[in-house]
Amino acid sequence: MLSNERSKYTDREIIEKGSRVLIKELGYSGFLRFIRQSGDISKDDYLIIKDKIFEGMSLDEIYDNAEKHWENRNNG
Prior knowledge:
Layout: H1 11-37, H2 46-53, H3 59-75
């Protein structure tokens, strides 16, 4: 099940941890390319978008879908 413990991070901690993950996955040049491109990312309210994306889904369904995605990503 998903843990709420991660939501206790400050915004600065989220940025630092997210940056480390991106660097690990993409390398430094990929991370910099991502940051350069992120200026084009929508400034829409994530909570409104999230509600539309996950409408009608239970937390268990969302978790199961995420788990399948990561399994496919790591096995593909």
